[in-house]
Amino acid sequence: MSRRGKFAAGGLVIAAAIAYLIWAGVSQSVVYFVTPSELLAAPTPSKTYRLGGFVQAGSLKWEPKSLDLSFTLSDGKASVPVRHKGTPPDLFAEERGAVVEGSWTTEGYFKASLIMAKHSEEYKAPPDGAEPGYKELIKSLRGESTQ
Amino acid sequence: MKAPALKWAIPAAVVPVLVLLAYGFRTDPREIPSPLLGRPAAAFSLTTFAGTPLSLEDLRGKVVMLNFWASWCIPACYDEAPALERTWRAYKDKGVMVVGINVQDKEAAALEFLRRFEHSFPNAPDPRGRVSVDYGVYGVPETFFIDRKGRVRFKHVGALTDEIARRQLDALLEEPS
Amino acid sequence: MIPELGYGATVAALLLTLWGTVAAAASARTGRAALLRSGERAAVGAFALITACIALMIYAFLAFDFSVRYVAINTNLGTPFYYRVTALWGALEGSIVLWAWMLAIYTLIVVIRYRRSQPELYPWVLSVMLGVLAFFLLIMTIPAPPFERLTPIPADGRGLNPLLQDAGMITHPVALYLGFTGFTVPFAFAMAALIVRRTGEEWITITRRWTIIAWYFLALGLLIGGWWSYHVLGWGGYWAWDPVENAAFMPFLTATAFLHSVMVQERRRMLKLWNLSLIILTFGLTIFGTFLTRSGIIGSVHSFTQGTIGYFFLGFLALVLLGSFSLLASRMERLRAEGVLDSVVSRESTFLLNNLFLVAATFTVFFGTVFPLISEAVRGVKISVGAPFFNLVNIPVFLALLFLMGVGPLIAWRRASAENLKRNFLKPVVAGLVAAAALRALGVANGLVLTAMALVVFVAGTIALDLFRAVRARRRSGDDWGAATWGLLLRQNRRYGGFIVHLGILVIALGVAGSQAWSVQKEVTLDKGQSMELAGYQVRFDGLSASEESNHAKVTGTFTVTNGRAGGYMLYPAKKFYAQEQNPIAYVDYRLGWIEDVYLVLGDFARDGSHATVKLQVNRMVSWLWLGGLVLTFGAALAILPDARRAA
Fold first, then answer.
1. Cβ atoms of C64 and C77 closer than 8 Å
2. Is residue B107 part of a domain?
3. Residue B55 maps to which CATH number?
4. In a domain, B22, yes or no
5. Which residue of B has its CA nearest to C367?
6. pLDDT 10s digits, A24-58
7. Is B158 within a domain?
8. What value of ipTM does the predicted structure carry?
9. Is the peptide bond before C642 cis (omega within 30 degrees of 0)?
10. A31, A51, A100: best mutation site toward chain C, by most C Cβ within 10 Å?
11. pTM of the shown model
């Protein structure tokens, strides 16, 4: 083979190896965006999903001792029970939007490895914070009366 | 010896990438729906800054555009304020009511805001914050579109534009009472 | 007043740069010097006007002038003084002003340095630079004006995003933009060289220092970004393959390739087409990066905002890429190589491989970043591509690059003989293998870590070997070790500056490998007085306290950390409540160490302070990343020293 041919062949081999890695990487780590309705229509335990919905009122349960967090994500039509180990991120609460990443278990709930709470840059929160107001929180931590 | 046209393959190769990026403008981010959609709007009974009573019950039968705002809400409330007034003036005779609820604000600052933007639709403060909580408001501005039967049909988060208001109001006005 | 003045200055600067672009180009075509002088004056005028814009903006910030919309959004009455100044580049509009200002400064430097020394290239260089500057001024005029008025004037502003109220966030954009804008100069020279058909090595030699400096600032910006992510965001990591991180990483990769391949062109007059393509690609990627951050087409935690600005950037990107590649194509016949690749086993070949891998990595990152778009366009399926993809492909590539880093500087040009290979590489290869075996014996089982360590020792061995031999040779002229080393470094500062930069990369590589392989974490809810244990550390929760600062309130947890050895210390992770934010922002507390960092994040807590949930991380070798950055600094500084030091 000519010298140029050898170089070309070598380059091609490397390119092919990288193309294979890319293909394998994408197949392994692609994450599908779904709503609760879409997930429940065809839940597949082997896929990684990013599930977006709002946290249903009254569904949030947090156990500080065992770090078990459970709640239900809904899109108004379907609801998905979600479980997570660890404290939720700061912007996470009931009746608010959230996106969770994880997979569907055969036991019938969504196991979230990551919780991302949605937050718009566009607007501002009231100065005294959402309920309970943070000023109250500070007062109670200082042991002051919150009346 | 390269074929003369082959060298133009280089700039040509750029084009599909640019097209792909341009396609990106068309994709919409996924919106997470509000839990309130389709449910009856929470009742409220307030007193406007002018001293008159304002309750949602009295507005049954009209399409209601309910806007939560504050004078410290920069820049979004400032951006949408003219659009709110324009929408009110355009739709007040068509069976639409525009109502503003002032959230956690100081009265003097709120009145100044209303004066500067020359709002002529009713605006009321929400002294105990109950209405904000009932509507799940956790930031301002948020605007709710309520149909003639008193159900929340659409929620817009962030500054409202004339187009969005027009689109929602026209759709709700077309529905039978 | 300020909005009107600022807007006027912006428009005036835009008109001046537009004129300057045309005048400089026209002077090159017609030979009329008066036009060129006019173009230069336009550059000076634009610089003065942009500086005035910056001064006006800073004044508005310091004076709490909330009639300026940008000031009202990004500060409030409680914002501390220094953040009021740095808020200038805290959001979209201001960041464009910073970019434009840096471009204007670089343009002035180009004017001063090259107006006499490069008469043929200079007019076109000036024209290109003013053209790019005009684009950013256009952005400042139409889609993202920083001087908009807000009426009525609010009593208080909104405030700076608390995540940006940090020293890392003050410096990160500055370093990054110095890097991005720095590549405009080599790009402009490349365009000039193509236009006047002087496609030899000249444009490379002239812009060598610019490239190194821009590359360095880009590296610095990336490292500072990693540091910010590490100590502010609370997840204990420094790189997430986020689209915006990737957008800054891609030009860094191609710039690294460019830095190396130009050496082949200088020596062997090959790769001319390749080098020109690389600098066009690098510059294009800096524009693409800005486009990505500001257009909103790909969701990211970093994205600024949407609006029409994306269209402007895409249009400019199209103009730059199509224009420069077409120019390149039209000059193709002048770009034939004058040397040939003699052997696979040669320095040329090693550098070519280095380039191949770097471009492959760039392609991978690009592909992973835009794949969601492709998927949606082709299949209608919304997806995202996560960190595992980037790691799977890039880790082997980076390991290969590490290996090449050891081979390249020592292997012979043209064709390396077996003798040459043995002489230069036998000992380092043995050292690498011995190191891997030793680590294995010590219990390190992770294959990737072993490979990385072996390669690091191999590369360090080649550097040590070369340095030792060169200093020993110098000593024959009578110097002692110290003077010989110092003299060598100064005499061949390009080469040894490069070696020190390589050393810096090695340190960073060690930090990455160690931190990925050996860091541990644990999350536990502790009652007051209770302790948790991880990696030999005991952390005891002592209580909560509350306080009020100028623009936020704070709940702080007190924790005592001990590790059985001498003396413990206290850590105070907190939650900060900012008035303008919906929820508290976590404030991480940490203790850095050479080998490991102790890192504590406060999660949930009880209102009465009776218990708190805390995440403890023991992160190994993360400090080596920052150390590596320091070494990079020395290396780059040495490499750009003026060549006047021709010691005897």
1. yes
2. yes
3. 3.40.30.10
4. no
5. B17
6. 888 888 888 888 999 999 899 988 998 888 888 88
7. yes
8. 0.81
9. no
10. A31
11. 0.90
